[in-house]
């Protein structure tokens, strides 16, 4: 008895069905993953993905976001100076191009409010206790250049600059050269526990990595470097193959049902 040989087209159709099912199961996860991340990226603003910092030390280390070298605390640890940025209770106030010298508190007589006085190498900034900018004074306003230290006492502000000691009152209108007999008591940073320092470091690092960045890199495969990009290219080709094989199977099935 002779063995019946199936037509080549029928064998090809069966092979397509077999591999289409296997590859389809494998690709299903990536279809769901790419769909979910794609929808999330399409609604970045609504989901505020760009404003959700990542605080996982593993991810921060993986992205090469280093621990800041300069971490200081002022005003009972409510003010944190991290590298060249100033934070108020964990919220970023501003970033400076120049080094932050020190931070103190002063009562402004002309509007009767307390403010934080932030001294950088080139300027002095005033913030109210809610973190709103009140004034920013630079060398054009008479602020001495290259400030090295600051002292606040009895409504007077004294700075040690490259040109010597200068003093002004809470109005900051007139800076005068002084030669004090006793060295001013310069503002110093406060000691903090290891946990408080760690939280300040983490908040600083987290601003450079957001949930939006993680989703974008995951969607494109860049989170795994070049290997991840090539892998996602392979997945894209796989989905193309599945589409073609699925279309082929559908066409053959349609023809067979019409016979």
Automatic annotation (TrEMBL):
Segments crossing the lipid bilayer: 227-251
InterPro entries: PepSY-ass_TM, PepSY_TM-like_2
Keywords on record: Membrane, Transmembrane, Transmembrane helix
Protein name stated in the entry: PepSY-associated TM helix domain protein
